[in-house]
Queue: 2 jobs
Job 1
Amino acid sequence: MRALGLDVGTKTIGMALSDELGWTAQGLDTIRRDEEQPGKDFEAISEIVKEYGVDTIVIGMPKNMNGTIGSSGERSQAFADELSKHVTCTIKMWDERLTTVAAERMLISADVSRKKRKKVIDKMAAVMILQGYLDHKGN
């Protein structure tokens, strides 16, 4: 079982991939989104699904701190709905509250420069989303 984690933002999509046993998540890549050609996002993800034999996609669901779903969560759900038209694997939504904050803190504690953090923050958030899902599934 391989899973793909996605941190879907308005400008980028961070991606992480699990190992074949579904134990660990590793950062994969970041897709720069093109507002004029949104289909390219789905094509790129579909190619990764095929290349790595992904059977589950885990998409971060941004929720408000009180657990309600706001406009960002609605955008993530709409993205998942559209993605389901392009892939045949299972798509799961996963609570991503504070993953970007945690990823930023981790990178700061590792003394990664602000410029470098900006390049990898979405990928790190995707790793945290996917690892949370994998840990939960393993319990």
Job 2
Amino acid sequence: MKKSLGAKTLAYPTPVWVVGSYDAAGKANAMTAAWAGICCSAPPCLAVSIRKERHSYAAIMARRAFTVSIAGQSQVAQADYMGMVSGAVADKFAVAGLTPVRSELVDAPYVAEFPVAIECRLVQTLDLGGHTQFVGEIVDVKAEESVLGADGHVDLSLLQPLIYAPGASLYYGVGPVVAKGFNVGRAYMD
């Protein structure tokens, strides 16, 4: 029997995305966000939700762009740090020993050392209450060759991305392949 846990943000798992932007002074900033995901396939879009009081909020609103950098498990401390301190009081890139790279396609930086970077042009915002959801059209995805599989796609076993368990505030890694999508369910099709 299932036990009620109440109305909480306990959807499992959530991504560990590092959202890059430039602030009003032009300083590169990044923040870790877990309230995020793909939200459209045509055009390709993702959404990330950020509180209005966060330093990144005003930067994304002003520049109409952001990036998402995806860290590997070996970079968990840096990804965690990026979500603990405000870019208004610290140069998070410098403190974490990371390098901001200016996107050539959108007005936002991504993290050079993280294996995947997604560059987004802001297309819509939605005020949800405590958070504003930023919908970004994906204009490019960049990945280190070291995390690409033979098919040219990102191989999760090579990327070793982090996932986050809200409530418990724990980072996890991704496990082994369980089944092929849009295939294993064919057993139920007539």
